[in-house]
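Section 5: illustrative case.
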C-alpha cells in the first residue's frame, strides 16, 4: 500500500469518479459528509484541507480527507462541523493508519465522529457514542406507527403542538428548499443566541464556517445538495433548518427557532414536518448527529455508533490523551457524574483550546 497527499482543491475528475464509486458501493458511507463534493466545498473556504490518497496496484483504492494544522496534526475535515468521519476505501482493502500519517507528514490524526465500522482504526478508539437517525425507508407513516408502538411521547407532543400552533397562529407551511438569504441570516442569528443561552461553543463564530454553509446552499445535485428549510405558522416564521442531502440521506444539521414561540416547540414540529416531506421526496434516512438532546433519543429509529479516536505518533501525547479519556469515562459512569459534569465539560473545553494551541 502506498500513501500520498494532495490538496483537496487539486482533486481531478478521475479521482472524483473513483471516490464516488467507492462511496456509493459502501452503505456505511452514504452520508453527505463522505461525498467528494463536500470535500471540494470545504477546500473552497479552507486551504488547509487535504486528501490522503491510498494506492494499491498502481491505482487509487481509498481517500481520507482531513484538515492539517500548522503543527502537522490531521483534524477532521471542516473541524467541529462534521458529524461523520472516516476513510473512503474499497471494501476488503486493509490499510495502516500510522503509516498513512507518516507518509503524509502528519504527527497525529484526530477524529471525534469516526465510524466504528472502520476496522483499521478500531484500536485507536477512546470513546464511543450513538448518532441517532430516523428510518424513513418504509415511508413516514410507517415510521410514525413504529414510534407510536414504542410510546414515543415527543412524537405525540410534536403532533399535538403542531395542531395547537395552527389553531392559534395559522396554517403550518414548510418551505423545504428556501433561497431567501434573509432566512439563512435568521438561522445564523437564532443559532448564535442558542449557543449563548446554553453556554455551548459557538461553532459559527468563525467566518469560514458561515461561508461554508452559504456555498453548500449552491450545491444542487443528487450527489450533494444544501438544504435551507423554513417553517411558517400563518405568515410568521417559527423555525429554520440548514442541512445537506445526498442520494436519499438527509443530514439534519443546524436547526434554530424563535424562542418567543417555545411553548409550541417549533423546532420539534419542523423536524417532524421535514421528515414527512423528505419521505415524499425519496429520503430514506434522516441523520440527527450525536448529542445529548432528549428529542434525539425519543424520536430515533436507531443509531450509528461513532467514536472519538486518536492516531498519535508522539508517545507522550498519545499516553496523556488516553489517560484523560479513561478519567472522563470513569466519571461518566460513576455517581460523581452529576456534581462534576460542569467541571468535566469545562475541562474538555480547556483541553480543546490546549490542543488547538499545540496544533498551530
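Designed sequence:
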Amino acid at each position: 500500500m502506498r500513501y500520498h497527499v494532495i490538496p483537496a482543491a487539486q482533486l481531478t475528475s478521475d479521482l472524483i469518479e473513483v471516490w464516488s464509486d467507492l462511496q456509493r458501493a459502501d452503505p456505511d458511507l452514504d452520508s453527505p459528509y463522505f461525498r467528494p463534493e463536500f470535500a471540494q466545498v470545504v477546500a473552497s473556504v479552507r486551504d488547509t484541507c487535504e486528501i490522503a490518497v491510498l494506492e494499491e496496484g498502481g491505482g487509487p483504492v481509498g481517500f481520507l480527507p482531513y484538515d492539517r494544522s500548522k503543527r502537522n496534526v490531521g483534524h477532521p475535515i471542516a473541524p467541529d462541523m462534521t458529524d461523520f468521519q472516516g476513510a473512503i476505501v474499497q471494501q476488503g482493502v486493509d490499510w495502516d493508519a500510522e503509516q498513512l500519517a507518516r507518509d503524509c507528514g502528519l504527527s497525529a490524526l484526530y477524529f471525534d465522529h469516526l465510524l466504528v465500522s472502520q476496522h483499521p482504526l478500531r484500536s485507536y478508539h477512546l470513546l464511543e457514542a450513538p448518532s441517532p437517525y430516523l428510518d424513513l425507508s418504509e415511508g413516514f407513516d410507517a415510521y410514525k406507527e413504529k414510534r407510536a408502538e414504542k410510546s414515543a411521547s415527543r412524537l405525540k407532543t410534536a403532533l399535538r403542538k403542531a395542531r395547537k400552533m395552527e389553531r392559534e397562529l395559522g396554517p403550518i407551511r414548510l418551505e423545504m428548499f428556501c433561497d431567501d438569504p434573509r432566512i439563512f441570516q435568521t438561522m445564523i442569528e437564532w443559532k448564535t443566541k442558542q449557543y449563548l443561552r446554553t453556554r455551548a461553543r459557538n461553532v459559527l463564530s468563525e467566518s469560514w464556517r458561515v461561508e461554508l454553509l452559504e456555498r453548500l446552499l449552491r450545491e444542487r445535485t443528487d450527489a450533494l445538495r444544501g438544504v435551507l428549510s423554513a417553517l411558517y405558522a400563518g405568515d410568521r416564521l417559527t423555525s429554520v433548518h440548514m442541512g445537506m442531502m445526498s442520494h436519499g440521506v438527509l443530514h439534519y444539521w443546524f436547526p434554530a427557532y424563535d424562542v418567543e414561540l417555545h411553548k409550541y416547540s417549533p423546532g420539534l414540529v419542523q423536524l417532524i414536518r421535514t421528515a414527512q416531506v423528505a419521505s415524499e421526496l425519496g429520503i430514506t434516512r434522516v441523520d440527527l448527529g450525536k448529542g445529548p438532546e432528549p428529542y434525539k433519543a425519543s424520536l430515533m429509529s436507531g443509531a450509528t455508533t461513532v467514536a472519538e479516536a486518536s492516531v498519535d505518533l508522539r508517545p507522550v501525547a498519545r499516553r496523556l490523551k488516553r489517560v484523560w479519556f479513561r478519567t472522563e469515562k470513569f466519571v461518566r459512569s460513576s455517581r460523581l457524574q452529576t456534581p462534576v459534569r460542569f467541571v468535566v465539560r469545562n475541562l474538555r473545553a480547556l483541553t480543546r483550546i490546549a490542543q488547538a494551541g499545540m496544533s498551530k
